[in-house]
């Protein structure tokens, strides 16, 4: 007989023994043993007490031991009685007990109870938990209001416990694994019950709240007496060996690259992934009707499957199945994509064609514009608009003043089936068009003659960095066009190559525009984009998708959005977006369930942008993504660590190099349980550390240099003026740790190190006591000053500034350079966190010029002189971001502080997330939706772009 | 949070003045958004005709987030779902609706489904128009309010609801920076409407002269947006605020009276002295009494229908009928008891550490116990107000047509006689039925796929027809 059979026999003997005994037990109201043999219809019989009714589809499981009911925590619960039943409700003395395993922590949880806790109406009792602690709650005539008696320590998820609540009319006791862990004498006398409401098992349910248990129950018992502690101990002792220790985390396989889900059309996706070697894999898709669809891929490294016939607005789960070395199958995690995340504009009928096909093709090819918004001026028919729609993803607006022509154009576009969803006609008789500035990707004049609208107005409307003006210029009209152009910013324009009579002018980058290319603006971690334009009064420039649905919940401290060259890159919940920063048009999106990072406070972001490329760390790779199209055009891999697997950690693009760090697999926080990472708890403050820093040439993919020393704190990696700074722990225990998420107490013997960015050679190093930085450790650079800051467990800020002179001329000598100059302490400062609101202690500093803003204070960066300590109030959980002239933050809503006028502005009705999600770049303030699951009633949840009124020009 | 459902007082609703009894001249029939019609369909209806849009509705907003990770709450309700179908209004033999897909307002012959006329605006028309005295009024995302002749679609007047014409990308379209995102209310010669999305840019609540479109008054709010269907009584205008809670304004001046408390949402229903709104975070309706900001009660559900003696509460999985008069009386009694309890508890707390107050504390304790018993009695009595409860798989919309509740579901609509609470009939429809209207001896169903169906009793119905042809369009 194998061990499993022995255990089963043991359980069976014990159960039968227990069942025979229970009939003799005094005061026993119910004994519900969850095992398949007790199942009947949509419920269960019980050895003692009422039959149970199941809601949802909980699963009764016999093997492996113990027999139990598995509750996934969605819709499932077990009803003992739908209304109060005197036979089930002890008048005074009561004991409730449960063998239980909790898999997911919720604010409230119930194993068994009949409770109402609705504001001032508090009745009944419940055995369960409050957040991570077991609890027993009860209201009596003597207390009137419920007392929640909770255990002093947290329970462990996925572990079996015996939990009991006892009340004897004078004292409440909470007993865990046979030991009394809490008592209270707040209640006395008979128990107060509500006149209505159900008694349920496996849920905390009253009229206001309903939290289903995610976990399992083996047995639940209820007594009309206060069972003595010794007796409860015997209950526990008798069966404790039947319950296994928590199972180790299942080991999931994952592809070496991907999977990526790309939309083909509204009902079709293409899923692709790669394996390390040639092997057959299978994609198993769960359909909404519960069936499964399996798609096999042959012996190859590059795998792809096209899934057709998808329904809109559904969640699709899938797994990848791989053969392991022994030929058994191993699976990936259960992945998800959502068919509501389809953002391409409506497509016209395939049969639609007009005589303007080649003209439209010339415009698209010569302008290089395929997406966003196009204006057509002076159209005499709708054909060009129809063709632009047909041959691109442009939204087209025809502008006209003649009412009769407008009617004809509308009728034609409506007949073509594209009016509204792709093309519209707007009436305007004014020389100034009603559109907001910097909006149009393409403006087309199709009439041959110059428009009545002046060139300056066209210039006002064109989007910077690529917005194109295209005009058909017949030779006979060239002089008229030259006059029209004269004196405008667009005077230098040229015939479009291969474009017939088409001439082209393309708008460049705005002078003074900044980029937000890294987590904290620049790689210097200054949280400043250096944008000179975002200042003064702002107004809404655009709003729209992505909304809250594809975004992770608000508090995970997720990677910040990025904006470079007029594009906005957003990391959602395992989905990436590229948007036009000036009008919000979604350029591309794809989902990848293996791209996710949270708690950036203790790690680094997984993405950076440079020029027209976005770089995203993904497993052991970094993906180079074309920022305009979303094409995954390049891939870089982390340097190997012998036979051991490693992931790509930190990523930055600076000085023509792609900088990376190497972490042990599984180091990154994922935030999948709704964590907020703002408490002083070991599982929240542990730092992700790297064992290697390296630089890669992004064009050739070749490794340029690598550095290894201590355990590098990812949150401190900083670049500036050709130098790379970081803190590393040289504690051997930290260096050798098998898991790279490490508690600050292990990360001792910390050194501040400066490398030459170009060569990776060490410039200088400095040991210092940074142990006060318990909650987090940040590092920022500016003006040859490097600043380390963090808060201690009592939320006091501690800041240390060091000089960091630029490398001198001898770094090419081939020798390691240890500078005697760098690393000198310039100043240090400590103060109690001023903000006094949640996350105040996690504020990331901002550096603008020579001013260092931290918490509620501003210091001179190079001297530490206190400049002011009256920064505007910032109520809420976000952190600051800045341009050169303004700081942005959450103060309930989106907020802005104009440094020039010292004026604070709030954009009411709309809020940011609990981290860094408002970025000034390209002359715009960009704020992707990040409030997501906020339970608050903020009126609007949308991604939004604000523009200074002076730039909008209207 | 209160646990109890509250029923609504009398069913006196504000009929649109000129509408005939069998008309449905505005969204959900009247400015109380009651969803009640006196007309009845005999037997199981059949589809008389279907009008199908070339493109489905283009709602401004996708769903809510996947979950509230902090509170571990799943299945969050969309709180600004007002434009998921082309909602129909009806006067005589003509049905009208706006389109968020092609920016037009259409007039259809209710007998044939034939398009009689259509009218282009310069932006999506997201909310149903309002009919009065031979005119049709509506707003558009282009920031304008329109008044047309309802028989031929001729423009009578068009007024920009804000002083500035600025068009920017919004919800993937070039629209006004101040789109009209509430319905239009026409009452006592005035048109009430809002324009604007973002409080920082100003959200305008405007009254216009119904005859000319000229401005009567204007109020600008800088804290809340305005999205959803306006409600009105003789003295109040109720302005839904998207995911937030509605604002109550003086209809004579537009000045704000208060913002009610609750969990937000654009669904709302008005009765004599109660505003019911939701669906909040997870499908809860809150009820606030006139003159009050805080809730009298809240209850699990998405929609409510109120008649003279009953209320019908419509949730994701069931519909229930309650004795509303009795229930409301008990809810008020219960609120009063709770208030007394709170005051006594506060007093007891203040005495807890004072020596020599034992007798007083004992007395309070006894009073608290007595109040607790009264509270239990009221609670039990409220539970006994339930007349019937029936499972429902049609959670998206409900109206009352005569003595039958019409329920909108996914790919199906159903009829449930109120006397029995049993399923009377059901019919397949293309898509999710988010919109229902009852008039002209027919029920009109609007779905998320852009279909408008006319259901009639078999005896009154012509053979089923499909239509998307237009006979004339303007301007």
Structure description:
- The complex is a heterodimer of chains A (954) and B (475).
- Chain A has four domains: 3-242, Jelly Rolls (Sandwich), CATH 2.60.120; 257-338, Immunoglobulin-like, CATH 2.60.40.10; 359-506, 3-Layer(aba) Sandwich (Rossmann fold), CATH 3.40.50.150; 538-670 and 678-952, Methylamine Dehydrogenase, Chain H, CATH 2.130.10.
- In chain A, a hairpin with a 5-residue loop joins strand 21 and strand 22 (292-307).
- Chain A is built from ten helices and 67 strands.
- Helix content of chain A is 10%, strand content 40%.
- Chain A is mainly beta and 954 residues long.
- Residues 1-24 of chain A have low confidence and may be disordered.
- In chain A, helix 3 crosses helix 4 (383-391).
- By secondary structure, chain B is mainly beta.
- Chain B has two domains: 27-317 and 392-474, 7 Propeller (Methylamine Dehydrogenase, Chain H), CATH 2.130.10; 332-383.
- In chain B, 11% of the residues lie in helices and 40% in strands.
- Chain B contains two helices and 38 strands.
- Chain B has a nine-stranded mixed sheet with strand order 1-31-32-33-34-35-36-2-37, with no helix packed on it. A five-stranded mixed sheet of chain B has the order 5-6-7-8-38, with no helix packed on it. A four-stranded antiparallel sheet of chain B has the order 9-10-11-12, with no helix packed on it.
- In chain B, a hairpin with a 5-residue loop joins strand 25 and strand 26.
- Chain B is globular and about 85 Å long.
Beta-strand percentage of chain A? 35-45%
CATH superfamily of the largest domain in chain A: YVTN repeat-like/Quinoprotein amine dehydrogenase
Under the CATH scheme, which architecture of the largest domain in chain A would be assigned? 7 Propeller
Q: Would you state the CATH class of the largest domain in chain B?
A: Mainly Beta
CATH topology description of the largest domain in chain B: Methylamine Dehydrogenase, Chain H
Silhouette of chain B: globular
Oligomeric state of the chains present here: heterodimer
The average pLDDT score of chain B comes to: 89
Low-confidence stretches of chain B: 1-21
Output the CATH topology of the largest domain in chain A: Methylamine Dehydrogenase, Chain H
Supply the number of helical segments of chain B.
2
User: How much is the radius of gyration of chain A in Å?
Assistant: 32 Å
CATH class of the largest domain in chain A: Mainly Beta
Shape designation of chain A: globular
> How many β-strand stretches of chain B?
38
Instruction: Give helix % range of chain B.
Output: 10-25%
């Amino acid at each position: 007989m194998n061990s499993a059979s022995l255990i089963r026999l043991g359980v069976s003997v014990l159960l039968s023994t227990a069942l025979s005994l229970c009939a003799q037990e005094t005061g026993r109201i119910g004994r519900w043993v969850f095992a398949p043999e007790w199942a009947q219809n949509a419920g269960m019989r019980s050895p003692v007490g009422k039959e149970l009714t199941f809601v949802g589809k909980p699963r009764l499981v016999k093997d492996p031991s113990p027999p139990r009911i598995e509750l996934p925590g969605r819709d499932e619960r077990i009803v003992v009685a739908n209304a109060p039943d005197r036979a089930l409700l002890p008048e005074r003395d009561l004991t409730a007990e449960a063998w239980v395993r909790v898999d997911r922590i919720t604010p409230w949880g119930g194993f068994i109870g009949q409770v109402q806790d609705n504001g001032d109406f508090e009745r009944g009792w419940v055995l369960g938990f409050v957040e991570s602690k077991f609890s027993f709650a009860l209201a009596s005539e003597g207390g009137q209001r419920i007392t929640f008696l909770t255990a002093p320590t947290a329970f462990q998820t996925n572990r079996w416990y015996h939990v009991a609540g006892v009340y004897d009319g004078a004292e409440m006791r909470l007993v865990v694994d046979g030991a009394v862990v809490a008592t209270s004498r707040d209640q006395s006398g008979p128990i107060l019950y509500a006149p209505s409401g159900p008694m349920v098992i496996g849920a905390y349910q009253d009229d206001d709240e309903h939290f289903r248990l995610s976990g399992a129950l083996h047995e639940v018992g209820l007594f009309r007496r206060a069972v003595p502690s010794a007796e409860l101990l015997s209950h526990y002792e008798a069966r404790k060996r039947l319950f296994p220790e928590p199972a180790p985390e299942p080991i999931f396989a994952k592809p070496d690259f991907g999977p990526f889900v790309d939309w083909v059309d509204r009902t079709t996706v293409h899923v692709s992934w790669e394996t390390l070697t040639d092997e057959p894999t299978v994609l198993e898709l769960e359909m909404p009707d519960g069936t499964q669809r399996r798609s096999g891929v042959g012996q190859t490294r590059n795998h792809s499957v096209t899934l057709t016939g998808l329904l809109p607005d559904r969640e699709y789960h899938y797994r990848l199945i791989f053969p392991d070395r022994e030929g058994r199958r191993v699976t990936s995690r259960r992945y998800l994509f959502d068919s509501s995340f389809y953002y391409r504009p409506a497509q016209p009928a395939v049969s639609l064609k007009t005589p303007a096909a080649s003209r439209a093709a010339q415009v698209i090819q010569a302008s290089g514009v395929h997406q966003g918004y196009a204006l057509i001026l002076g159209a005499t028919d709708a054909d060009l608009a129809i063709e632009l729609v047909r041959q691109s993803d442009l939204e087209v607006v025809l502008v006209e003043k003649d009412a009769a022509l407008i009617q004809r154009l509308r009728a034609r576009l409506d007949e073509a089936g594209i009016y509204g969803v792709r093309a519209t006609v707007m009436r305007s008789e004014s020389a100034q068009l009603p559109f907001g500035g910097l909006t149009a990707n393409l403006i087309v004049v199709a009439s041959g003659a110059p428009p009545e609208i002046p060139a300056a107005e066209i210039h006002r409307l064109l989007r910077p960095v690529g917005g194109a003006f295209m005009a058909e210029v017949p030779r006979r009209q060239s002089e008229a066009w030259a006059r029209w152009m004269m004196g405008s910013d667009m005077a230098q324009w040229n015939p479009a190559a291969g474009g017939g009579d088409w001439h082209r002018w393309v708008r460049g980058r705005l002078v003074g525009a900044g980029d937000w290319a890294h987590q904290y603006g620049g790689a210097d971690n200054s949280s400043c984009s250096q944008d000179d334009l975002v200042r003064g009064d702002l107004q809404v420039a655009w709003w729209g998708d992505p909304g809250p649905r594809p975004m992770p919940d608000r508090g995970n401290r997720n990677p910040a959005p990025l904006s470079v060259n007029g594009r906005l890159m957003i990391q959602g919940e395992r989905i990436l977006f590229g948007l036009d920063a000036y009008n919000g048009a979604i350029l591309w999106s794809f989902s990848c369930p293996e791209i996710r990072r949270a708690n950036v406070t203790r790690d680094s972001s997984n993405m950076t942008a440079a020029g027209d490329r976005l770089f995203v760390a993904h497993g052991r790779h970094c993906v180079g993504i074309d920022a305009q199209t979303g094409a995954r055009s390049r891939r870089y891999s982390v340097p190997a660590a012998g036979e051991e697997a490693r992931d790509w950690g930190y990523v930055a693009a600076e000085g023509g190099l792609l900088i990376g760090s190497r972490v042990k697999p599984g180091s990154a926080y994922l935030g999948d349980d709704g964590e907020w990472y703002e408490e002083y708890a070991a599982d929240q403050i542990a730092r992700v550390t790297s064992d290697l820093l390296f630089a890669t040439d992004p064009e050739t993919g070749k490794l340029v240099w690598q550095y290894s020393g201590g355990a590098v704190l990812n949150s401190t990696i900083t670049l500036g003026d050709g130098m790379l700074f970081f803190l590393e722990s040289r504690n051997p225990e930290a260096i050798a740790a098998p898991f790279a998420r490490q508690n600050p107490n292990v990360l001792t013997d910390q050194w501040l190190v400066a490398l030459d960015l170009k060569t990776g050679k060490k410039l200088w190093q400095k040991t210092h006591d940074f142990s006060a930085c318990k909650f987090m450790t940040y590092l920022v650079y500016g003006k040859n000053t490097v600043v380390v800051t963090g808060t201690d467990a009592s939320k006091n800020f501690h800041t240390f500034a060091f000089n960091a002179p630029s490398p001198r001329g001898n770094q090419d000598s081939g020798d390691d350079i240890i500078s005697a100059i760098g690393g000198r302490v310039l100043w240090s400062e400590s103060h109690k966190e001023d903000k006094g609101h949640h996350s105040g202690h996690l504020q990331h500093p901002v550096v603008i010029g020579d001013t260092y803003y931290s918490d509620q204070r501003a210091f001179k960066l190079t001297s530490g002189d206190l400049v002011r300590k009256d920064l505007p109030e910032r109520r809420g959980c976000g952190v600051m971001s800045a341009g050169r002239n303004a700081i942005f933050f959450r103060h309930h809503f989106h907020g802005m502080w104009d440094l020039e006028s010292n004026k604070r502005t709030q954009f009411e009705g709309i809020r940011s997330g609990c981290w860094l999600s408002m970025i000034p770049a390209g002359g715009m303030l960009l704020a992707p939706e990040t409030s997501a699951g906020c339970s608050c009633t903020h009126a609007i949840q949308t991604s939004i772009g604000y523009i200074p009124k002076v730039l909008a020009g209207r | 949070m209160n646990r109890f459902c509250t029923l609504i007082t009398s069913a006196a609703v504000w009929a649109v003045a000129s509408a005939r009894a069998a008309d449905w001249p505005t969204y959900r029939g009247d400015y109380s958004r009651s969803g009640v019609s006196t007309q009845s369909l005999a037997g199981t209806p059949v589809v008389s005709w279907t009008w199908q849009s070339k493109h489905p509705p283009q709602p401004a907003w996708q769903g809510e987030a996947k979950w509230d990770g902090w509170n571990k709450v799943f299945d969050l309700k969309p709180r600004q779902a007002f434009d998921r179908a082309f909602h129909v209004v009806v006067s005589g033999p003509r049905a009208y609706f706006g389109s968020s897909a092609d920016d037009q307002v259409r007039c259809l012959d209710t007998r044939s489904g034939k398009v009689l006329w259509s009218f282009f605006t310069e932006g999506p028309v997201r909310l149903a128009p309002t009919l009065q005295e031979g005119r049709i009024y509506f707003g558009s995302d282009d920031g304008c309010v329109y008044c047309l002749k309802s028989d031929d679609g001729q423009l009578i007047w068009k007024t920009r609801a804000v002083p500035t014409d600025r068009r920017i990308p919004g919800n993937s379209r070039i629209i006004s920076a101040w789109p009209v995102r509430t319905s239009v209310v026409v009452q006592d010669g005035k048109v009430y409407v809002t324009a604007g999305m973002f409080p920082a840019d100003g959200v305008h609540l405007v009254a216009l002269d119904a005859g000319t479109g000229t401005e009567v008054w204007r109020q600008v709010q800088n804290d809340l947006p305005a999205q959803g269907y306006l409600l009105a009584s003789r003295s109040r205008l109720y302005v839904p605020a998207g995911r937030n809670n509605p604002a109550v304004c003086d209809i004579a001046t537009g000045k704000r009276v208060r913002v009610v408390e609750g969990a937000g949402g654009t669904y709302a229903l008005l009765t004599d002295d109660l505003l019911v709104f939701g669906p909040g975070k997870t499908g809860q309706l809150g009820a606030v009494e006139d003159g009050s900001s805080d809730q009298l009660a809240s209850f699990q559900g998405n929609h409510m229908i109120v008649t003279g003696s009953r209320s019908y509460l419509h949730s994701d999985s069931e519909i229930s009928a309650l004795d509303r008069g009795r229930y409301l009386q008990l809810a008020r009694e219960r609120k009063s008891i709770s208030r007394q309890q709170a005051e006594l508890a506060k007093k007891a707390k203040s005495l807890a550490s004072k020596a020599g107050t034992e007798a007083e504390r004992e007395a309070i304790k006894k009073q608290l116990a007595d109040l607790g018993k009264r509270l239990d009695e009221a609670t039990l009595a409220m539970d006994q107000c339930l007349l019937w409860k029936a499972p429902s798989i049609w959670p998206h919309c409900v109206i009352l047509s005569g003595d039958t509740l019409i329920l909108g579901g996914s790919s199906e609509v159903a009829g449930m006689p109120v006397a029995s609470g049993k399923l009377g009939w059901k019919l397949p429809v293309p898509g999710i039925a988010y919109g229902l209207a009852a008039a002209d001896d027919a029920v009109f169903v609007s779905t998320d796929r852009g279909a408008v169906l006319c259901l009639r009793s078999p005896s009154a119905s012509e053979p089923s027809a499909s239509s998307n042809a237009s006979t004339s369009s303007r301007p």
